[in-house]
Design a protein that fits this description.
Helix content: 55-70%
Structural class: mainly alpha
Distance between the termini: 69 Å
Shape: elongated
Low-confidence stretches: 1-35, 212-218
């Protein structure tokens, strides 16, 4: 929309009409004006006396000294052109809205999943619930009077927006059961117990520290604090810690919250290596194993480039160190690494030719 005084009387007329209709004030001119094209897409909020776009966050416009609102029509033409086109179908309007929509939670939840290195089943369940609640407020329902009503204007949402919300609800209602969300939730009980037994057995066989060593380490770590704390209290703490192993303390501790695990499980265990010295080492040993064997297989498939016919007598430790050093050098030079990878791939397909 052009600024006042630009000479474009048609757009200025639409803007003045928008103000008159949304603010509830009567028009100064007695001549009846047509309904504004942007009437359904902006809301006048009394808190800041600005016209806010119903679909875009942080987009609002204020009246100038002459009472003209400059900007809404221009914004709709640039951002939501389909909404102004009377020939646009509901799906086309829906697409235009969802690109810059106040159905913003869809966008926010997508970013949440993308930013989480280790998304969990519980996270997806919470996201579904959040989106369900958001979409439901656009759909009229007899038992819930506030649904389907814009709480700012107390007006019913446009039919095309209600239709879009219903489609979104039906789509989620289709995919959520197919994801077997409830099955996963129910199955977590026996799976957790099974994994607890596996972890406990591994701990007892390979990682459980010697009791005497653990006691000595604990006494050394607490020597400074014993000088300032009450002796009796310190002794009770020491006894309580010694009667519980690291894995028992870990399994009986509260569930970690989302903020603590934002950096992923490796960082979580690194931050707690003093609290769980042996258990953290066990966790890091397992977390260091790649989720896929592709990168490992690719590394060892290049071993023939290192072990020639005259180097078959190399010890396994020497080969391991040489391949490790080679990997370090290649990782510092990605161009050379990609070149060797392409060459190795060609040789595998062509054989000795």
């Amino acid at each position: 929309m052009t600024e006042p005084g630009s000479g474009n009387e048609a757009e200025t007329h639409d803007v003045v009409n928008l103000e008159d209709e949304l603010s509830g004030q009567s028009c100064a001119a007695p001549v009846a004006k047509p309904r504004s094209k942007v009437h359904d897409h902006f809301t006048l909020k009394v808190q800041d006396d600005r016209y806010h776009c119903n679909y875009c966050r942080n987009i609002s416009y204020k009246r100038n000294k002459t009472g003209v609102v400059s900007g809404p029509l221009k914004h709709l033409k640039a951002t939501h052109p389909k909404l102004l086109d009377e020939s646009s179908t509901i799906p086309q309007k829906r697409t235009s809205i969802f690109d810059h929509c106040e159905v913003q939670p869809f966008h926010d939840m997508t970013l949440q999943v993308k930013s989480n290195e280790y998304p969990s089943i519980s996270l997806y369940a919470l996201i579904y619930i959040h989106l369900y609640r958001h979409v439901e407020k656009y759909i009229p329902e007899t038992s819930k009077p506030t649904h389907g009503i814009d709480q700012t204007t107390q007006q019913k949402y446009p039919d095309w927006l209600i239709s879009a919300a219903k489609d979104a609800y039906n789509k989620m209602d289709k995919y959520y059961p197919e994801s077997d969300g409830l099955v996963y939730v129910v199955a977590t009980g026996p799976i957790i117990n099974k994994y607890k037994k596996m972890i406990t057995n591994e701990w007892n066989q390979h990682y459980k520290p010697n009791i005497s060593t653990s006691s000595e380490d604990m006494d050394s770590a607490n020597s400074t604090s014993q000088l300032v704390e009450d002796l009796f209290s310190q002794q009770m703490k020491s006894q309580n810690l010694q009667t519980k192993s690291e894995i028992d303390r870990y399994l009986t501790s509260p569930v970690a919250n989302a903020n603590d695990t934002a950096g992923g499980p490796v960082k979580w265990w690194m931050d707690r290596k003093f609290e769980y010295p042996s258990l953290s080492q066990m966790a890091l040993d397992y977390l260091a194993v790649p989720g896929s064997g592709a990168s490992v297989e690719r590394m060892f498939s290049n071993g023939v480039d290192l072990i020639s016919h005259r180097r078959h007598s190399l010890a396994s430790e020497t080969i391991q160190k040489a391949m490790c050093l080679r990997g370090w050098k290649l990782s510092a030079n990605q161009t050379e690494f990609k070149k060797l990878h392409r060459q190795s791939t060609v040789e595998k397909f062509l054989g000795d030719k």
